[in-house]
Amino acid sequence: ASMVGPFVVGGVEGSPDVMERLAYTFIGVVMLAFWSLPSDAFPDVIADLQGDFDMMFVSGIFMVAAAVWTVMYNADLLLRALAFVTARFGHLRPVLVMAVAYPMSNKFRTGLTLAMFSLVIFSLMVISILSETFGTQFAEAETITGGWHIDAQVNPRTPVEDIRRNIDEERELRIEDFEAIGGYTWVGVQARQLEGKSQKWKEQGVRAADDEFLRGSEYKFKLIAEGYGTTGDEVWQALMSDPGLAVVGGYVVSTSEGSDDREHDIWLEEPFYKDEKMSAVDVEVREPRTGVLVQLKVIGVLDRIHESSGSMIVSKSVLDDAIPFPVPITNYRFKVADGVDAKEVARSMEASFLEHGMDTEVLEEELEKEAAGAKTFFRLFIGFMALGLLVGVAGLGVVSTRAVVERRQQIGVLRAIGYRRRMIQLSFLLESSFISLLGILIGTTLGIVLGWQAYNDIKEDEGIDTIRFSIPWIQIGVILAVTYAASLLATFLPARQASRVYPAEALRYE
Q1: What is the rounded CA–CA span in Å between residue 411 and residue 105?
Q2: Hey, which residues does 86 pair with through a beta bridge?
């Protein structure tokens, strides 16, 4: 390159090395920015990009590759900065400079090792962040269950005629232990929007609830139709007063106009979940067994965090008026008083209503099981990523062992000019630390960036406002500390072997 001499590009004189650095650095920075920023950050340059969950892993690979690419083509700047910082450390300075100089002289091999190490750290970071972030949506159990504590089901062939009277007559139960008792019946119907573009019937689950259930529910609303109040209590009161009204869950409507909600069987074409306001929507439902048609008016959309976010809730009087035969209540919800153990009450109710085939569940426990299952799933991913991390650490050990063999004569020269054993050993350990710490820095930083982008995309697409971005710093700190300690341990034996090389023995084969 020095034989070519300087040249002029755009009126600026520069050497080939400088222009090469600028070109490759520009490519790396642009690629890193492209894959790090959200897809809607370039609306005037590219069209709206769409992708599934697998695109997160693809973007992660390109982000790590771009970061390593940029670092390796600016490695000499790192070396100069390190030499400047360590100028005051005396004997430590040559050790640090040598520890960085050798990896940078083999950029391809060092780059591959750094990329492998960074990618594993990056994957662990993303999985840990997503696991912790998804767990935040289960933080408030009563918000998800609408304030109810116990769910109970009875055999439809042996229904309970008066649940309050039966509880009052049972010795094991006290009516004072309950703040609210509501009942409902699940009914499978077909539904469509009257003025919608598509007039196809779609399957829809309906929760036909009695007044006690409507009055005691604390489900939060995302949208309330104009003219029907501004609070949930007003909406439930409207349903009790007018049997022709209904509310739907958040997953019955699309997120926004043009959004792709293929995983949900959406039949209500308007409103959209992200709308600021809505008008009442006329719908029609059909009972498939009898063919009875009922027209309803949807006046509210529930938050998607609720366990009833895919169903429709109506007053049970609608069902009683439409179907010619009696439909008993098959499900009950109970809200226990403060200080009452919901688990003990649930057990007592199963024993007291044994002849009705009652089966109870404590809703908070069920949510904890669901959250535990999700965390277990993510922990399996973390476990597999940890295996990959072991491979990365072993790779550092292999590189260090090979370096001892390749640099045997160099080590002899260093010993001959005054390097002591401890300096040689420390140089190899710092060399491993340079790669591992740089990999940890790249993987951790990019993992947080992609975790934040994934959180925003999930929150934006699903419309779940209760989810919170959370980083498990303790778990991540333990992983990174163990990783760094393991990398030092893997290179300790090669470093010790290098420190025992005698100058005369190494230079004998020159």
Answers
A1: 16
A2: none
